[in-house]
Amino acid sequence: MAAAAAGLASIWRLSHRLRPLQVISFPVLQLHMSRIAMGGSQKDFEMAVNQVKRLKNEPGNEVKLKLYALYKQATEGPCNMPKPGMFDFINKAKWDSWNALGNLSKETARQNYVELVSNLSASEPSSPGKPGAGRKQAGYDTLVVTSEDGITKIMFNRPTKKNALNHQMYQELMAALEAAGKDDSAITVITGNGDYYSSGNDLNNFTDSLQDDIEKSAQNAAILLRNFVGCFIDFPKPLIAMVNGPAVGIPVTLLGLFDIIYASDRATFHTPFSHLGQSPEGCSSYMFPKIMGSAKAAEMLIFGKKITAKEACAQGLVTEVFPDSTFQKEVWTRLKVYAKLPPNAMRISKQLIRNMEKEKLHAINSEECRVLQSRWQSEECANAVMNFLSRKAKL
Ligand SMILES: CCCC/C=C/CC(=O)SCCNC(=O)CCNC(=O)[C@H](O)C(C)(C)COP(=O)(O)OP(=O)(O)OC[C@H]1O[C@@H](n2cnc3c(N)ncnc32)[C@H](O)[C@@H]1OP(=O)(O)O
């Protein structure tokens, strides 16, 4: 995990140790970006290097490696580093990427770098004036939170990353749940934007947050997770999951703490903890056996069996499955009717159902986090994460 501590995040930092940002007005920048799309002078290159630091969309490790390699080739020429050892995953990935450029000239590398940055800038979101933006609650980058018809909807909004939960998303979800618990809506709905409900914990969290002190990082992550799951245990109103597509990891385990789960028939439910060298969280070590029986829960939580929406419904994890083509229409129609029921009665009924076990659930949550804290420091976990980040393995 020492290699992970250095982190793929460091590719980013190492490749961009550069001069302070130049201030460029937007029209000048636009003009500039159309110019740099065509050329690759030293000045264009320097501006592109600065532009990279302003990108709002995280480009992903593959693109970061490409940027790193082109930057090194443009500034130093062909790869001149000794090849890192096979277990030095991060430096090996960087070396491979740079070395793959062979004898590409500095000038062509500069030009390719400029073009790549130009393409990345072109796909950045143009923030103001999007339709429907007026109803969006402010203050969230990784979520879209809206309130209407007595329903607060919290939507995971990192579709290009399959709605993986990065640190910011954990924080924003806690804030959104805190606010939804107190607002005047009757029910709260969580769903995902794009083809996935959510692919679970963002595995880059492991490299982004790890400083030199891995024990401290694991401890901080355990505190974050305990607080995060605690918000679901304590949520005071009916909480509904609209599982619009595949779900992996923590968004699945949390479902035991929801009151209703509606799923599209495209949804799948996957908790590959053993594959990742990890262990269950979200109170699933207690709720899943309780909901589906210990044998079915073991298949999911120990052996990582992926189940379909239909199977999840048969096992009691999902309330009802809808054809994907009518999922949104049917579910929202139904929820709008539910949201008109007397809100206090619904809240009190939910609390009657859940409160008896709250204390127990908090204890289970603490224990799961304690175990995970140690799992995150294991070699099994480090290898699984590095395999994903270095593109050697997906689920
Ligand atoms: C601090 C609290 C910790 C709580 C712990 C929770 C435990 C868990 O949640 S365990 C579950 C962790 N999740 C995974 O292991 C999923 C990893 N992702 C995948 O295996 C695949 O991405 C996929 C099967 C979900 C989808 O594969 P597909 O081929 O359709 O798409 P991709 O090209 O792989 O993904 C697009 C894009 O999204 C990035 N991405 C997807 N999932 C994650 C993730 N969990 N973490 C980080 N990044 C993820 C993927 O890298 C791609 O990014 P780029 O376009 O930049 O390459």
Automatic annotation (TrEMBL):
For this protein, the record's InterPro entries field holds: Acyl-CoA-binding_prot_CS (IPR022408), Acyl-CoA-binding_protein (IPR000582), Acyl-CoA-binding_sf (IPR035984), ClpP/crotonase-like_dom_sf (IPR029045), ECH/Chromodomain_protein (IPR051053), Enoyl-CoA_hydra/iso (IPR001753), Enoyl-CoA_hydra_C (IPR014748), FERM/acyl-CoA-bd_prot_sf (IPR014352)
Q: Name one GO molecular function term.
A: isomerase activity
Q: What region holds the ACB domain?
A: 41-126
Lineage, top-rank taxon, reads: Eukaryota
The identity of this protein, by name, is Enoyl-CoA delta isomerase 2
Q: Which UniProt keywords apply?
A: Isomerase, Peroxisome
Organism lineage reads as: Eukaryota, Metazoa, Chordata, Craniata, Vertebrata
Q: Which Gene3D superfamilies match?
A: 1.20.80.10, 2-enoyl-CoA Hydratase, Chain A, domain 1, Lyase 2-enoyl-coa Hydratase, Chain A, domain 2
